[in-house]
Design brief:
- The protein is α+β, with helices and mostly antiparallel strands.
- The protein has one helix and nine strands, in the order ββββββαβββ.
- Strands 2-1-7-8 form a four-stranded antiparallel sheet. A three-stranded antiparallel sheet has the order 3-6-9, with no helix packed on it.
- Strand 7 and strand 8 form a beta hairpin.
């Protein structure tokens, strides 16, 4: 039986390519105050391949996986987050104008491999608010 791992110390950061098509290996800027990272382990579609020769069971092959479009990262809404996210959106715009992608890194201190992916950050708006609640926002 394996040893369970907690989520303490997980970080989420970004970096813009300096060479087109090459993931940055360092220089990731921490995105502060992130509380939840969405699951990135989608179920692959199942594609039916049954032919007329089959007499009892349908047959299938694995299809594509779909992350479902925009990913939502829950964060505490802070001035620091607002500033860093604004810088991220501007860095993305500057990079994309030069054909450079923005990479994101999910890093767990107890796992050997980080998860990297490219994305298009959306500008942050004003989150909903309730009585006696922590001000939180979703980052896309």
């Amino acid at each position: 039986m394996g040893i369970a791992v907690n989520t303490a110390g997980v970080t989420f950061g970004y970096a813009v390519e300096t060479t087109k098509g090459t993931r940055p290996t360092s220089g990731y800027t921490l995105i502060p105050d992130v509380k939840e990272i969405p699951e990135m382990n989608p179920e692959p579609e199942t594609l039916e391949t049954t032919t007329l020769a089959e007499t009892e069971f349908k047959t299938y092959i694995e299809g594509l996986k779909d992350l479902g479009g925009a990913l939502s990262f829950l964060a505490n809404f802070t001035e620091e987050l607002e500033e860093v996210w604004g810088e991220l959106v501007e860095a993305y715009k500057t990079g994309i104008a030069s054909g450079l992608a923005t990479w994101f890194e999910v890093k767990h201190p107890k796992l050997e491999k980080s998860v990297f992916f490219t994305g298009q950050p959306s500008a942050m708006g004003l989150p909903g608010m309730g009585v006696n609640a922590v001000l939180e926002t979703n980052l896309y």
